[in-house]
Amino acid sequence: MPDIASPSAVVIDGPLTRAQVVAVARDGVPVRLSAAAEQRLITARAHVDALADAPMPTYGVSTGFGALAIRHIPPERRAALQRSLIRSHAAGAGPAVQREVVRAQMVLRLRTLASGYTGAQPATVHALAAVLNAGITPEVPEFGSLGCSGDLAPLAAVALALMGEGAVTDAEGHRTEAREALRASGITPVVLADKEGLALTNGTEGMLGMLVLALADLHRLLDVADVTAAMSVEALLGTDRVFAADLQALRPHPGQALAAARMRAALAGSEIVASHRDCHRVQDAYSLRCAPQVHGAARDTVAYAETVADRELAAAIDNPVVLADGRLESNGNFHGAPLAYVLDFLAIPVADLASMAERRTDRMLDVARSQGLPPFLAADPGVDSGHMIAQYTQAALVAELKRIAVPASVDSIPSSAMQEDHVSMGWSSARKLRTAVDGLTTVLAVEYLTAARALEFRAPLRPAPATAAAVALLRTRVDGPGPDRHLAPEIAAAADLIRDGALLHAVAPHVDSDPVPGERRQ
């Protein structure tokens, strides 16, 4: 597998890693083609040129597309055929998807083109790499892909920009015409040749890009959930004994063991936990006691999704595909089912993690269940409402996440005059997972904000070093308990600390020092 050649470049020479995709998509790391990739492009293109000159029609080279594949196209009309394919397939609608999504699908399609299985012209591949490196982002509408044949409309929007047509956003974030952005960056618009319309559009890169980005986000959010859950357990005078390694080993799921280890570490050294070890309470509520089981199941689901993503990152998706012996063969590898299923699957644990976090938050606000905390954590209950409505926001988000957890992949709608009579809807699965990840971030932010406030009401008892570090970080952005304030900016500030990794960085010296023996960190 290729590695990042330097901190400033990703070499395109074979399967990409998830980290490389994220680096290009989010951090703007540039790309370059390897010498081996350049040679593959030349060899594959020679095969396509030979087929284009042959008297026998070849799908995608000298015929129409989809249900129009029976029509033979004469040589003098084939450039128009490729141009028409891109223009007609760039038929999306709705708001533009996020820059990182477009960049992810661009670098993934670049990797597929460089594999030598698509037959694209070297000049076209170089233009795609140049657009990426120039920070030009084609405008890709949210709706239009059925996930079969791949992400046609989103990828066509990118191909349209390579032709110098359509709208883009430049490196400074200004919306402009593609031809103007290309000119300003010294990039010549491409003139597509035989087969290149399919080579640029017939893949799963859109949904795969969103899966890779979601996996990166979920790694962070699962770690955050362990921390916020530990803060809630501590604030609610719960016990850490249920997280003991020997108890977790009785059910040997790796994700569960890791989540429990992190929660143990987060609560180690807590005066609050130590203060009630000999009390008469024998069991905590499920939202406290079973957090490792739920968080761990989510971790194991993410691990499965990673295996699917990694397989797809090693795939070369196109139809027809150029084989090493020069054959051009039709296939069904563009079908997005493998990705659609895991994208749908991930939305389930996201909703469940959020649901459990909301239950812990509600418990801290309910005077009947909060073990002595003031109602709604208000400074002056009755005059102040504390975090009452913050929990409403969590509840609204959790309800939305439950709706989002309904799978899109079971809702196939036939298209292309019944030629494409079963589609994956994987793009839709990916779009709703992105919404779910954002929702989980806010739900955890509310728990973080609430648990920090609750811990401060336990003074003079001191929290654990890890949870104390989490509270101290929050207090750099949000004031401690006091009269009611505008709460929405405080939720947003807590979400920022989660999103940018600051929370995990603050607790890492304490939480990550308790690894699970023999386990690879997921």
Structural notes for this entry:
The protein has 522 residues and is mainly α. The protein folds into two domains: 4-203, Fumarase/aspartase (N-terminal domain) (Fumarase C, Chain B, domain 1); 210-316 and 328-511, Fumarase C, Chain A, domain 2 (Up-down Bundle), CATH 1.20.200. It has helices at 18-27, 35-53, 78-89, 99-114, 122-133, 152-162, 178-184, 196-201, 205-235, 245-248, 254-267, 271-274, 286-289, 291-313, 337-365, 388-404, 426-456, 465-474, 488-499, 502-511; strands spanning 4-6, 9-12, 31-33, 93-96, 137-138, 141-143, 167-169, 175-177, 321-322, 328-329. The protein has a three-stranded mixed sheet. The chain has a three-stranded antiparallel sheet with strand order 5-7-8. Strands 4-6 form a two-stranded antiparallel ribbon. The two termini are 20 Å apart.
Which key terms come to mind for this protein?
Fumarase C, Chain A, domain 2, three-stranded antiparallel sheet, 522 residues, 2 domains, three-stranded mixed sheet, 20 helices, Fumarase C, Chain B, domain 1, mainly alpha, disordered C terminus, single chain
The strand order across the widest sheet is 1-2-3
CATH architectural grouping of the largest domain: Up-down Bundle
Largest sheet: 3 strands, mixed
Low-confidence region ranges: 1-7, 514-522
Share of helix among residues? 40-55%
Query: Tally of extended strands?
Result: 10
Q: Supply the helix-strand structural class.
A: mainly alpha
Taken as a percent bin, the fraction of beta residues is 5-15%
Give the class-level CATH name of the largest domain. Mainly Alpha
> What is the radius of gyration computed over CA atoms, rounded to a whole number of angstroms?
26 Å
What number of structural domains do the residues give?
2
CATH H-level homologous superfamily name of the largest domain: Fumarase/aspartase (Central domain)
CATH fold category name of the largest domain = Fumarase C, Chain A, domain 2
GO molecular function: histidine ammonia-lyase activity
Enzyme class: lyase
EC number: 4.3.1.3
Main location: cytoplasm
